Automatic annotation (TrEMBL):
<dbReference type="InterPro" id="IPR009784">
    <property type="entry name" value="DUF1349"/>
</dbReference>
<dbReference type="InterPro" id="IPR013320">
    <property type="entry name" value="ConA-like_dom_sf"/>
</dbReference>
<protein>
    <recommendedName>
        <fullName>Regulation of enolase 1</fullName>
    </recommendedName>
</protein>
<dbReference type="InterPro" id="IPR015987">
    <property type="entry name" value="UCP022704"/>
</dbReference>
<dbReference type="Pfam" id="PF07081">
    <property type="entry name" value="DUF1349"/>
</dbReference>
Length: 198
């Protein structure tokens, strides 16, 4: 996103503070709590709202982008971007460890969660950027590894009148101590169109 600058980490608020969140230069180093997760009902039957997300307002017509590095080694380790209206309405998108390899995916929740994903083994150990762009009644999610091409991840519904917040998130449903280095957190104008790259 051109014409943007780093959003101050201290200007956003944590949903479910984590055991460690320390600035290191321009970066933010975090470490997750045990069994942290976001999920509502579908297939698993449980509700989890214990994951970590650093959130600031995301009005219609704006986008948020987050860049991170993480060693996702345990099942369901995950990091990326969350866009949240409330505990029943939210989207998380990023990279998650599943079946022994990193997967790019998204969970869209309107009272119940759904999950879409695709393997990206070549993204292991890279710097990943996830971007959520809000326009009208739509939330468009894209991602890329390092300076590679943007990939479309998801087009999801979000009510135009919804008051949403967005920012980096991370979870470790099967353990504690997932370490994530967030290197970028920026807001800017929404994408021009569905098929326009940022």
């Amino acid at each position: 996103m051109t014409g943007t600058k780093q959003f101050p980490w201290s200007d956003a608020a944590w949903l479910n503070p984590l055991p460690r969140a320390e600035p290191e230069g321009d970066d933010l180093l975090v470490s997750t709590a045990y069994a942290s997760d976001f999920w509502r009902r579908t297939s698993y039957g449980f509700i989890r709202d214990s994951g970590h997300a650093l959130l600031a307002p995301l009005p219609v017509g704006h986008a948020v982008a987050v860049t991170f590095q993480a060693d996702l080694t345990t099942l369901y380790d995950q990091a990326g971007v969350m866009v949240r209206v409330d505990e029943r309405t939210w989207v998380k998108a990023g990279v998650e460890a599943t079946d022994g390899t990193p997967h790019l995916g998204a969970v869209v929740t309107h009272d119940t969660s759904d999950w879409s994903l695709a393997p990206v083994p070549e993204w292991a150990g890279t710097s990943v950027t996830v971007r959520a762009s809000r326009s009208g009644d739509a939330l468009t999610i894209r991602a890329r590894a390092s300076e590679g091409p943007w990939r479309m991840v998801r087009l999801a519904h979000m009510r135009p009148d919804a008051i949403a917040k967005a920012g980096p998130f991370c979870c470790s449903p099967q353990r504690e101590g997932l370490r994530v280095r967030f290197t970028r957190f920026v807001f800017g104008p929404a994408d021009i169109g569905l098929h326009e790259t940022p």
